[in-house]
Amino acid sequence: MRPSPSLRVQIAVAIALLAIAMAWSFTVITGSKIVHKAQQISGELLAKNAFLMMARLDRDMDYRIALLGTLGSLPFIRHRNDPQAIRATLSNTSESLPALVWMALTDAKGYVLIATDPRLESTSLAEHPLYRQAVDKLYLGDRLEGTLITEEPGQQARLVDLSQPLFADDGSFSGVLAARFSWQLASNALAQLPVLDADTQDLQLLILGHDRQVLLGPAHLQGRPLPALARQSSLAWQALDWPEEGRFLTAFAKSRHPSLGWQLLLRQPLAAANQVDTEITLSIFWSSFVVSLAVAALGWWLSGRITRPLTRIARAADRLSAGIPTVIPQVRGAREIETLSQSISQLVQNLSQQQSALGAMESLALKDPLTGLPNRSALLRFMQGQIDPLVFLYLDLDGFKGINDRLGHQTGDKVLREVASRLVHNIREGDIAVRLGGDEFLVALQLGPHIQPVQVAERILATLNQPISLGQEMLDVGCSMGGAYWPKDHEDPKAAVDLADRALYQAKAAGKGRVHFYRHPD
Length: 522
Description:
Elements: H1 5-72, H2 75-79, H3 83-96, E1 100-106, E2 112-115, H4 129-132, E3 139-145, E4 157-167, E5 173-182, H5 184-190, E6 204-208, E7 214-216, E8 237-242, E9 246-254, E10 263-269, H6 270-273, H7 275-301, H8 307-321, H9 335-364, H10 376-384, E11 390-397, H11 400-407, H12 409-424, E12 432-437, E13 440-446, H13 453-464, E14 468-470, E15 473-475, E16 479-486, H14 493-509, E17 515-517
Parallel strand pairs: 16-17
Antiparallel strand pairs: 1-2, 1-5, 3-4, 4-5, 6-7, 6-10, 8-9, 9-10, 11-13, 11-16, 12-13, 14-15
Helix pairs in contact: 1-7, 1-8, 1-9, 7-9, 11-12
């Protein structure tokens, strides 16, 4: 007895509903995973950029601290026996420091003897933190100042104060060497970081002071105190609701200088971060929906012959929905039934391929797009899996800025790729060469019984110091390098990387083009 038309309609509708349910289930599961994973990758990229920005600010401040310490160690400044040389040195130094307001040398009572701003000379800093808090140690402070000489008297300005105590040969306190910077120093430092590119839509950068005032950020927030934003976890990024503005992916980074109290926030509207993910999810849904309609049409014409095969297919679909790996059965019999089973199998395969794309997205997030080297996120993963000792070599190209300024960024990119290639050819399997950003690289070597880190560092340095051939032109770039051991120099690998960075600045201060390994202070 042939089934009645109404029964065939019911079967066809049931087939359509089953196929649509399968499509919707896979779309929801895969789409939610894509959104979650993409949001995680976007948050980690934001956190990486925030870390790089804050590290650049800290390194810029470290350089100023080291420079002031070097000046304070000069004998003619400590003894104040050559005013003309002191004045010339302070003047020449001020020309090389962007955002410097003034530098001044005081006596033991706080009176200014020599300053780059003549208005300060013969005035007293005795009641100012620049003097009072620097009598026994270095002072670094971020403050709102309008009472001591500024570029615009009577108007408050955001300033960074830095002062170094000076001591006579007998160890007695003899005065301070002080410097004042405008807050433009932060803008100058961050302007050199190419992180706000075309691939990061609607990124906004904020820097907060110790009083949570927005020092740098969108115009409607600048100069205003920012209320505390709740952080429910220890992650370096989070999706947060900003009052009256909406929901943002927000990354956090704090300065290594607690006396400054700087906190850097990098945020991106959640809608912009999820735009591509929504398009992928919709594409999955509509593809699945079209396939479902085809399945329903086949079910209408062949409902009398597909009851048993559909039962097997439905059972397989139930197992898939339960998360059990299952292959859609290839039903033999009528041609239409075979087509149906193949269509559903193709649907499952397409959705599985979408899930595989997630792994590819995560892999891209661990590579530097310019050089192909691992990035900082890959370095963190590498360090997490290490149990054997490492040596970190922190590299910085000496003449790269001049090449960029003279020949353009395209030539600079070729130089960076050539440096990356040379690094890869000078390390062993198991070691890692990383591009940290700009012209900064890091090599992590696994220590073994026959490895000589100093010799390896000098070999890498010699390789990078060789001229680079670009067409008809030979470019001399040069390189400086700082090294540190883990866990010998510090038990935290991130801190050991910072020590290698510090050693790099010491290598540059000693004349560039050399290797300097970190040494613990006596």
